[in-house]
Amino acid sequence: MVRLHQHDLRFPSVDRASPEGLLAVGGDLRPERLLEAYRHGIFPWYNEDDPILWWSPDPRAVLFPEKLHVPHSLKKRLRSNVFTVTLDTCFRHVMEQCAGPRPQYPEGGTWITDEMLAAYTRLHELGHAHSVESWQDGRLVGGVYGVALGGAFFAESMFTRVDDASKVALVTLIRQLQAWDFRLIDCQQSSPHVMRFGAEEIPRSDFIDQLTAALTRPDRRGRWVFDEASDTE
User: Fold this and answer.
1) What pLDDT shows up at residue 1?
2) Which listed residue, 17, 31, 96, 135, has the most CB atoms within 10 A of its CB?
3) Number of independent structural domains in the chain
4) What are phi and psi of 85, to 5 degrees?
């Protein structure tokens, strides 16, 4: 594990990561460092009382937009239009909801610290981080946030307050990313949830190759809105 210097934005090669994927410790969460990390397949993940830890797991969970699988029951939910789905309307609120208590994290998502909240909100203000929101009767009931560079979207976290709200948000986002010719969605580590939608594990070396190719695409920077032709069918 490498200790990062405060004024040096460079990261070690991901090949130096531990078997668990831990690569480096320290540094900060300024936008330049975060973007440099994502460009090299590295992301921060740490608890509130820990130093900043930087990870690049092997294998890597990736969802290719063209391979999206939507379960039959969710297709019916999408067609019902029970949720209104938006992009980039309340990024910080989505992050705060992801950080709060959820069924799988009753004590709250402690890894989304105040420091993380401020850092990713700044990335959003710079046009690099984005949120997708599900609304029901004017109330935010689900959402997803992540970082976009080139043709890659790095999914960070999601929350739901109503059954299927976050799933509808995620599927709607992925369909829009496919229309925008995004090449991959980084899910970081596998879980039954992401695998259900067609995510797959690939070797880290393959992920880096795929990421390098995706980064040749132009950045879609700034506030996102759905294409007029985009729908949830």
Assistant:
1) 83
2) 17
3) 2
4) -110, 130
